[in-house]
Structure formats: structure tokens, C-alpha cells
Design a protein that fits this description.
The protein is α/β, with parallel strands linked by helices. It has one domain (3-175): Uracil-DNA glycosylase-like domain (Uracil-DNA Glycosylase, subunit E). It contains 6 helices and 5 strands. A hairpin with a 2-residue loop joins strand 4 and strand 5. The chain is globular. Keywords: DNA damage, DNA repair, Hydrolase.
Amino acid sequence: MTPEELQAARDRTVPDVVAGGLHVLFCGINPSLTTGATGHHFAHPGNRFWPVLHRSGFTPRQLRPAEQTELLRYGLGITNVVARATARADELSAEEFREGGQILAAKVEDLRPQWLAVVGVTAYRTAFGRRTARIGPQDHTIGGTRVWALPNPSGLNAHWTAQTMAEEYGRLLACVDHHTAVPTDEP
């Protein structure tokens, strides 16, 4: 992508990958400029979401951002706390996070996933007013949906490696109630 293409993606929104009754609705902070330009969630080359999702066992192979709708086969979806694309999350205001939290709560109540997994504990804290939240399962629910705060898979998050993130994502996977078998890519 050229710098011009990336700048043209500023403030774009990217459609959610959602359906009713998901096992897990993953919720990013907001789309990157790369995601805004491509229309694919977690599309920045330095983002570790797709490798971590596979490594943790949520998907039988590593999906590419362009294959994001394949997540629905596994009972997974993607949305964001704030819909508009920015170069960095620190370009978003606390008010945008709070408004995004209200919109997200309404979306979750409508879709009723088993789990809402917010990939960024600081975004979760701000969006839902949970100042002391830590990585892991939360005591906060939205309707019947349980909430888990996961580490942000951005390449800028140096506190977590792909392996330690995969372990935390795997903890969530172990708590997912699979009412139906998760399909594999095997014939």
C-alpha cells in the first residue's frame, strides 16, 4: 500500500463479520489504516491476530485477513469498539470509546454470542468503565454474554509474544461451549 492509499482510508469503517449465536465475537479496538484500505480486519502485516488465532486452536489453519468470513464456519466473528480507521488507537477519544461501548453492548445483546472477547484491555476498561479490569474472564456480562479481555495482537504490544498471546486465547477457547462440532478443513 502506498502512503496515499493508507491516508485515504482514514475514518473509513469496515463491515463486521458477524452472525447470531456465535461462540466468540472478537472485538478489536478500531480498524487500522491497512484494514480500512483493504476492508479486512486485522490486516496490518505486523498484527498477530491471525497467527495467534490459529496457534491457540480456534482455527485449524492460519487464515489470511481476506479469508475473514471463514471465521463464521467456526462460530467466530469480528467487530470493533470504535468503527473508524485510524493510524493509532491513541487518536481515539475516551468519549469515542464510551460511545463505542454502548453500540457494542447493543450489538452483543442482539447477536447473543457466548463470549465477547475484547482484544485490548485498555479499550475494554475505557469503553465499559471497568478501570481495574485485567486480562482474562470478567465478572461483567452483557445480557447472557460473558466477557473476556485478551491481549491486543498489535505488533506494537511488546509485552506479549505470539506464544503467550496464544496461551491466553487458548484459555478462552477452553471455556467455549461448543454445542456443535467445529468444522475442520479436512475432507
